Target: Kynureninase
Amino acid sequence: MTDLSERAAELDARDPLAYLRAEFDLDPGVVYLDGNSLGAPPRRVAARVGEVIHQEWGRRLIRSWQETWWTAPERVGEKIAPLVGAGPGQVVVADSTSVNIFKALVAAIRLTPGRDEIVVDAATFPTDGYIAESVAEMTGKVLRPVMPDDLGDVLGDRTAVVLLNQVDFKTGRLYDMAAATERVHEAGARVVWDLCHSAGVLPIELDALGVDLAVGCTYKFLNGGPGAPAFIYVPRRLQESFRQPLSGWGGHRDPFAMTPDYVPDPGVARARAGTPDILSLLALEAALEVWDGVDLAGVRAKGLALTGFFIECVDELAGDTVEVITPRDQRRGHQVSLRHPDARALVPEMTAREVIGDFRDPDVLRFGFAPLYNGYAEALRAARTLADVLATWS
Ligand SMILES: Cc1ncc(COP(=O)(O)O)c(C=O)c1O
Ligand SMILES: Nc1c(O)cccc1C(=O)C[C@H](N)C(=O)O
Model:
């Protein structure tokens, strides 16, 4: 026990990212390990949202649309771009991940004529599967769910598009983006990556890997706030041929000309649809400032160390009662998932002791570690709390 406490204290003392915790408005008595669902609020967001309401909305009123608001989706996209390995002009913030999956899948299908199958990760977060199913129905394609490890079994000259998650929402497993992208391309198909659980977790190389399209949430590890708008990546090489189905005025080349015909913007703005949600978008913009000067390789190193330390603590303190289902090697994001038959009831017991993780059906306890604000002593306290709850569990 003492050994783990000493190690946690030492690791926290040597943590080069520890200074970032002060950027977040977190209750010091709570161990918050659910940033893979809803990231914590950066302190600067409240002041910025207040300023937007009082100044930009209250004083500048309608003028703000032309002054700074209308182009905010691209401006905020530029702040996300370096976090996903995208050069300028290829990321835009708009709508939700679900909506962007719809746009990306339809656009990818339009890029692969003569092919009739949509392949989707069989273990995906449900919204991806639901949207893929409805895109299949609308476009007359066949939906082929497959476990990512078995991709090779289904890829072929019928495959139009493959929708994959870089990190699995339930197990926390990290998939090899380079290898999967290459396999999909070898089959002549297009790949759409869902980065919800990997953006803000590890360096991502969308441009370097030749990824076709990608989408992701901003309210998890990017801390944009509840319901913050999502992002979509459309590389320059595909922008001219990217035809998304939601041809609203937001993606028009000249929206304020209000002409009857739809002419898409020549750049990534063509992925927009309607009026941006300015309060959430500008809250996200402020939240992203905490990343300024932060090296993603360092974030990744700490995320692996934190999750590794948590696994070690769980092994030592509760290893005979729970099963770690997240890979112990580097094939994991920043989430540790544990299996226990009473997971559903254990999570609220832990929450009552101020350790917040979450439950996923049927028997998974999830703990998300955000290197910008979580520390090693918190990992140890979470494992101890779990062990205490289990010790009294009948
Ligand atoms: C992999 C994945 N895709 C999509 C979503 C959510 O999409 P939306 O923000 O549209 O609800 C989530 C989480 O909610 C997710 O984990
Ligand atoms: N988007 C969420 C929401 O609106 C409410 C509660 C949770 C969520 C989530 O993001 C869940 C998350 N994608 C997951 O990995 O389970």
Notes: DSSP finds 14 helices and 13 strands in the chain. Residues 296-318 form the longest helix (23 residues).
